[in-house]
Amino acid sequence: MCLNHAIETTLDDDRAAAFADDLVETLNRGALALMISLGHRTGLFDAMAHGEPRSSGALAAEAGLDERYVREWLAAMTTGRVVEHDPRAQTFRLPGAHAASLVRAAGLGNMGVYAQYIPLLGAVEDDVVACFRDGGGVPYARYPRFHEVMAEDSGLTVLASLFDHILPLVPGLAARLDQGLRVLDLGCGRGRALLALAARYPHSTFTGYDLSPEAIAAARDAAGGLANVRFEVRDLSDFDRSAEPAAYDLVTTFDAVHDQARPRALLAGIRRTLAPGGVYLMQDVHAASAVGDNLDHPLGTLLYTVSTMHCMTVSLAQGGEGLGTMWGREQAEALLREAGFDRVEVHRLEHDIQNDYYVVRAD
């Protein structure tokens, strides 16, 4: 064996060993994400937020949970280096530096919200495996908690920034809403953004459309006594033909375009339904359209996984294009111009690594 070949073989062996170690760590981290989701949903992180050491029994009593399950969860949190454990006192504590990323009071920094996507998407693995073999997609009905988690996600990204950061991207928009605008939100989910706008701007009227009857029912229940907002179950795949012409002054979509069955029809319908001088405000995932340009994306692997397990497949289930979560800025701008929009501005918010914000006009 020549020296160069021996060196190359050694390097390959080292690389293989390092990759195997990485995969072991991936398994541990994937399991930890599942446990973090449990800690978020059960309120255990919130119960530990003050940072005092407590036994599993004391923590279970405070959170109103079964001690045996809490004890096993704490073991996972301890070996995952999330929780600190005192073996002599048999107590556990959540350090303040960790609580800043795991408790509800952390707001946008609460990673527990996003950890919920791991078990949620894992639940449809068998369906997706079948799609790999046979084509087609997994329908929305197979994701009973998706709108619930998306509403919580939106509460951190959209609601927390809506009035101070997102609306100011359109100069003068807040003042015009004060005076009274006709506003349409497409793919509104549970309507949290629209409800916040309707409460803030009583002289404007707000309409929300979504394909999910469960999401629309939740939005209607949450509307309470607000008289200037309405919600409707609606399939937007023919929106290019069914959209009411020149009916709205402001149209919004929040993380809604890329998983539509016919995104081109949706965008053409938005162009059709905008009144002269109207504005379309679109929030969608920050990404490039080419995978090679996303190698350093901080959430790239997660978002391509979300796409495979949800966004792409629900579009394909409707016979749609299956753009996918990571359709990217270049494709987004191209489709907007194809729909007839002449002016497209793309903005980033300093605190939001996940999204791009498009201010779109037709004139």
Description:
With 363 residues, this protein is an alpha/beta fold. It has 2 domains: 3-112, Arc Repressor Mutant, subunit A, CATH 1.10.10; 121-361, 3-Layer(aba) Sandwich (Rossmann fold). The protein is 50% helix and 15% strand. Helix 13 (213-223) links the parallel strand 4 (205-210) and strand 5. Helix 3 crosses helix 4 (67-79). The model has no long low-confidence stretch (mean pLDDT 93).
* The CATH homology group name of the largest domain: Vaccinia Virus protein VP39
Computed over alpha carbons, the radius of gyration is 23 Å
- Strands, total number: 9
Task: Classify the helix fraction into a percent range.
Answer: 40-55%
Q: Determine and state the CATH class of the largest domain.
A: Alpha Beta
